[in-house]
Amino acid sequence: MGMDAAITLALIVLALILFATEVFSVDLVAMLIMAGLVLTGVITPQQGVAGFSNNATITVAFMFVLSAALLKTGALQALAHRLSGVFSKNYKLGIVMMMMLIAPISALVNNTPVVAVFIPVVIQIAYASGQSPTKMLIPLSYASILGGMCTLIGTSTNILVSGIAEKSGVDGFSMFLLTPVGLVLMLAGSLYMYFIGIRLLPSHEKSAEVAERFALHDYLTEIELLEGSALDGVRIMDSSLVKELEMDIIEVARREERLILPPGDFALQAGDILKIRCDVQKVKALKERVKIVEDATLQVGGNSLAEKNTVLVEMVVTVGSSLENQTLRSLDFRRKYRGIPLAIRHRDEVLHEHLYSVALRSGDIILAEVKAHYVKELKRLQSGRGAPFVLLSEEALTDFNKRQFLLVAGVMLSLIVMATLELLPIMMGAISGVLLLVLLGTLSMKEVYQAINWKIIFLLAGSLSLGEAMKNSGLDMMIADTLITRLGGWGPIAILSGLYLLTSLLTEVMSNNATAALLAPIAIATGAHLGLSPVPFLVAVTLAASCSFMTPIGYQTNAMVYSAGNYRFSDFFRVGGLLNLLCWLIATFLIPMVYGF
Fold first, then answer.
1. What's the per-residue H, E or C state across 340-361?
2. pTM to 2 decimals?
3. What residues are paired with 339 via a beta bridge?
4. What structural domains and CATH numbers belong to the chain?
5. CA nearest to 382, candidates 306, 321, 305, 299
6. Cα 374–Cα 252–Cα 329 angle in degrees, nearest 5
7. In this structure, are residues 163 and 172 in contact, taking their beta carbons and an 8 Å threshold?
8. Could you give the count of Cα atoms lying within 13 Å of 233 in the half-sphere of its Cβ?
9. What is the C-alpha R_g of the chain?
10. Is the pLDDT at 296 greater than 50, yes or no?
11. Which residues on adjacent β-strands are paired with residue 369?
């Protein structure tokens, strides 16, 4: 093994560790690896940044915009709410209808925003129909994954592998190249969920009450300022309540008046009754300065907390959100979102203290009390593709605009037809479609920039440099040779099956796009080494990179429903393990039959 190959392999191992441990965000890891490859001379600077001008990267960027345009019409939200009646009458029929609705939509629209739209609706449907959300959210994510595998534009992974193939001199994927196997996997996955999967889904104790889900009972109380208090006449921002004890003053009651979410420059007075969020032990430490009016904790969810001028909302941090890796303090949450954070559901734990210092991650849920009039603005912020969060406890329904829907649907249908007939490259079709929507007033240029998931774009651009490094160093051929040596005696089907299994397992612990970028060059090298067509091997990598059902970290939509449904890590393994095995077996036998060698 040469020095370049050794460096490349070392950086790949480092990338795998960083992707799996989530020490840094996946886009940052990809860019660090690219920089490392350039600085060590494995690839040239031009090759390092070539991913930004790659057809796949540009196509994915503009497909994000087309997806955002469709969401803006309100069509998906309108469809989602029509499911409510079905679930209330027949749960199993509702699951089938939901999956049959989500999968085709995800085949034509990027599946991440589709799931973002459906999460709050599905949770509301669950409570309305007497079901636990845990019985519905995993099927939602799985349906979007299965549907995204059916067409070239269903997910960024498909476009990425197609772009890698083209850059390597292999024909890229046509619009429906993946459809034959993708459809079978989608149907098999849906049948599995209907007959087996829903029996394995957890039924955690459902709790529609926000207080119970966030365990807030011991962290909300009222205090009264006594005559002669050192806080008399002091502004809230300067008070020891805020500066020393990190309390949030949610309401000030002064005689007959009530001030909801008082500003920081509001001056306190003796006799004020303050509704606060704080550790009860810290409240007890104030006995010399305040008098506890209500020794029992407040009942969350009743009129005592959510007054008519404020609303409790749950905000789930989306994948690629501008909130990721930020703290509530750095975001200036209170000023920016007009709300007081009450708790954060962070992975498997509920946090009540030091909320402003918690580094937020995708899937985290922020419980906040916000001004009622500002909820409309929060809904507007979550309506676009680049939404920083999704509201769970507030219904977020965009009015259906039929004219806009027909226009966007027409543009997307034209893109599909022209790409299928090879009248126009899909990259140019996507760019042209976006420009047309801007010229017709459906989108503004600001909305175009906001719709692009820049985290995914940087991840793609950085990951593509790995392919160049493996090709330059010959590492791709070495790995392909090892794979062939180990499995060659069993024939090409065994090699394809092994490549699929390797991709599937790696996807469960790192980004699906990063896995595809890593193994697509190996798939091409394997085909070349065997003197066979690389297409079946590329299809195996593409499908396996999306078939992530066993962990909540392997695919974006799994991460989104993980916290929203209050799942445990083991829930995904129990439900998704058999589904992964089923997809592997079907792909092993079906891919060679459909694509040949």
1. EEEEEEECCEEECCCHHHCCCC
2. 0.69
3. 370
4. 3-206+408-595 (no CATH), 217-292 (3.30.70.1450), 310-391 (3.30.70.1450)
5. 321
6. 55
7. yes
8. 4
9. 26
10. no
11. 312, 340
